[in-house]
Amino acid sequence: MLQINEHISLADWEIEISQIRAQGAGGQNVNKVSSAVHLRFDIQRSSLPAEVKQRLLALADQRISKDGVIIIKAQSFRTLELNREDALQRLAQLIGEALKQQRPRRPTRPTRSSQQKRMDKKTHKGQIKALRGRIEP
């Protein structure tokens, strides 16, 4: 069971973890030991609240496929257990991002002085460009 926060937790059946061989530069054991982890989490089939599912699917994250499956590959550590913990931690962090409610954006207006400064700069630039003309003898 993966605890996200005090209200939300994920059961073991919701998270599919498979071990794979790590990629990258070789060492003595890299081609023989499957120490990397592939974690798959199907958002639609999960027990998360519908609102959190929608926010997760709306996230612009490359780890979320078009089918709504989160795929996390962990291969930072040399042992399978540490990579598994790392993958679960990254999944919890990703779901935690979706739990945060964003405040609605309130459109702001430029201040009167900033508008006035902008217009003064435009006038000044126009005057400079007007002086670049041909000089009459």
UniProtKB/TrEMBL annotation:
Residues 98-137 are annotated as: Disordered. Residues 21-37 form the Prokaryotic-type class I peptide chain release factors domain. One of its GO terms (molecular function) is peptidyl-tRNA hydrolase activity. One of its GO terms (biological process) is rescue of stalled ribosome. InterPro entries: Pep_chain_release_fac_I, Pep_chain_release_fac_I_sf. Gene3D superfamilies: 3.30.160.20. Belongs to the prokaryotic/mitochondrial release factor family. This is Ribosome-associated protein. It comes from Halopseudomonas yangmingensis.
